[in-house]
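Appendix B, example 12.
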Amino acid sequence: MRYIIPILSSLNRDELIEKLPAFVKAGKLVQMAASNRMRERLPKHAATYRKVESSVGGVLTGMSLCEQFVEIHYVDFAAHGLTQNDYLESIKNFFSDTHMFNDYVVQNALQVMVENYTIEGEGRRDLPLAFMRTVMLTIKDHKSLLSYICDSLLIKLIKAKVWERQPKQWQGVMKCLVILREVQGSTSINSIKAILSLPTTQFESVLRSNDLVKTHLQGLIREGTLTGVESGKAAILARR
């Protein structure tokens, strides 16, 4: 794979997507060298997932950082002889380079995957296996994106009823909500809006998953900081 790296920026995006598993299999050094070469002619599009219809002749050349981050998540690792750990490590490799894969790139990539999941009809794609793990890594490594995760990403997944379509991803959402509360503490950026937007059944599931979330909400109600809670949810919070 090392011999093909110098010409990667001249290949079309579909060809590069097909080669991603081979770069992962070759190890971190090759994967990151390939990443750098694929994006070198696209400095102005680093955080963009380009549309085919906007290309010349219907062909997109090279691969932006955003496109790489998105498509590495959709790799069918088992079909290419990779282990699940290989797949997860390949994503972590991108996280390790916060200069290239900065807040803007990561946010746009997450947004693309959420849009792929929430659109109706042709083009809809399930959330990739590692999606919620990636959200949790983002919480850890990209603190400026906490507001985006709480106020946009999680709300969209909840509106899409992720618990019905992908129960395993819903487990990740619940963990994420708990982690956000622990990370944020008493700061103004919080996951309360997302938690309160849940239907009553799922709201109760989150509270059962971590007593501290329930205790935190009960405290906010006592202080008068949290008002206007739906009656069904207020009744759940009133239970000891």
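The chain has a mean pLDDT of 91. The two ends are 60 Å apart (CA to CA).
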